[in-house]
Amino acid sequence: MQRDLTPFEHLVLDLLCKGKSNIAIAVETAHTEKVIENTVSRSARAFGITSNGDTNVRVLLALAYRTHFGDAAFDSLDVACQHMSIGPDGKQMCARHTE
Length: 99
Prior knowledge:
Blueprint (H helix, E strand, L loop, with lengths): L6 H11 L4 H8 L3 H14 L10 H13 L2 H5 L7 E3 L5 E3 L5
Antiparallel strand pairs: 1-2
């Protein structure tokens, strides 16, 4: 990552990762859609993501953000990880996503 994100950029990207559109994010944060578009663009540049006709910046940005800051949006979907197994303590744990 080329720079730290602002708290507002974190908020916008958390909502983006939850699948919200720019309009929905604008309504939820009481900003204009243009402010959200600019925030998404600045955030993409912070991750070194550039726009071209072959890529979806929002998808790459969501992947980069969740890779860097965790999978809270995925966790909130309540979808079981396909790598789950029972750990030595008897609790379920992800066999792939552990540190």
